[in-house]
Design brief:
The protein has 202 residues and is an alpha+beta fold. The chain has a domain of 128 residues: Hypothetical protein (Archaeosine Trna-guanine Transglycosylase, Chain: A, domain 4, Roll), CATH 2.30.130.30. Helices cover 32% and strands 25% of the residues. The chain is globular and about 45 Å long. The chain starts with a helix and ends in a 14-residue tail after the last strand.
């Protein structure tokens, strides 16, 4: 295949996909700013959240904001307070592994559905399962993540990394739609800690 033909093939096959992904990221970032402004209004009577979501940035610490996708019944468990620790397992070091810190904010999104809640991260644990047995993680966290059954853990036997997050300040929100269309279960909405400015006012 000639160089010219290869370039043409790249332009017609890869660039539209890359452009689509870029547009999706931009759309999600724009939505995130508007969503946080709306949440500020919804939670304006909550002193703790009013401070955490205060502009500029996201409070004094400019916390990261994450969008986490939940399947049922785990989303309901979080909103009801039965599930105090969220877990994410992966084959590689992708978000949220190593990318979440205490004080960060998580928007709770239903799989194929709207954002239904918000919470903060109280504590984090990151495990390399190549050196830490999965059985140890299960013994320590199964009850707090509402996963005491064998099926849950069998599905994660091949995972190499685990992220465990202690959740606090969980609040249910008026459901809001979200333009996220990809398959990622976790998205960092403001990348670096000094991003995602909030131009709105109370």
């Amino acid at each position: 295949m000639s160089v010219k033909r290869s370039v043409q093939q790249f332009v017609f096959t890869c660039l539209p996909s890359l452009a689509g992904r870029l547009f999706s990221c931009m759309e999600l970032a724009s939505w995130a700013t508007e969503a946080v402004c709306r949440i500020r209004q919804d939670l304006r009577g909550d002193a703790g959240w009013r401070k955490a979501l205060a502009p500029p940035g996201l409070g004094v610490d400019a916390r990261r904001v994450h969008l986490a996708v939940f399947v049922e019944p785990f989303l309901s468990y979080v909103l009801e307070g039965a599930k105090s620790v969220e877990s994410r397992f992966s084959m590689r070091q992708c978000a949220p592994f190593g990318r979440v810190a205490s004080g960060d904010i998580i928007l709770l999104k239903a799989a194929s559905g709207p954002v239904k809640g918000i919470c903060q991260v109280a504590k984090t644990w990151f495990f390399d399962l190549r050196s830490v047995p999965l059985a140890n993680v299960r013994e320590r966290f199964a009850e707090s993540i509402c996963a005491t059954g064998d099926e849950f853990w069998r599905a994660r036997e091949k995972a190499e990394y685990a992220t465990l997050l202690k959740l606090e300040c969980v609040r249910e929100l008026t459901p809001m739609s979200c333009p996220k269309r990809d398959r990622r279960g976790w998205v960092i909405l403001n990348g670096e800690r000094n991003q995602l400015p909030l131009p709105c006012t109370s």
